[in-house]
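Sequence only, no structure available. Ideas?
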Amino acid sequence: MKKLLIIYDVSYPHLEGGGQKRLYELGKRFAQHNFIVDWICFKTWEDPENTKVDGIKYIGLDGFNGLYSRNGSRRLLEPFEFSLKLLPKIKTFKSYDYILVAQWPIIHLIIFFFLSFSRKFNEKVFIDWWEYWGDAWYDYIGRIGFIPKLIESFIIKALARKFNFISISEIGLTGLQKITKFK
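Reply:
I predicted one. Tokens follow.
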């Protein structure tokens, strides 16, 4: 049996949201086609530590502090918290035949920049790219928007050379095409 690893900060059905619902549906379908499907995410469910739903085994990372701040915007520290918690799991990645990594919360993709230097990962990593922000970062966080804009551009350029991108929207595809020769 082939093994698929899904990487996203939170999971469906434990937290509702479009990204996690998409990945859940994909994972469920792969499980129905005799794949072993694991999903690494923040643990947002009650015990046991790992749980299984519709053929997907959820591997929970401790330390979830919520996605949103009091004012309703996405917490800026959450992507860093997820990335730090994900780091110790890297050694397990090589045991999977395929790795499906969601674009958001983007900072965790820097880990894959370093993995891109290993040929073991080049053919098995798929990045599910949903949207491109570009200059919209300035509207979201003001003048310091240039920082996430640079990170987004760097990640696209660096990872498009080594990994497979799946663009699920026109906005995502347009952004990828702006920065790379992505087709």
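The CA atoms of residues 134 and 149 lie 6 Å apart.
Hope that gets you unstuck.
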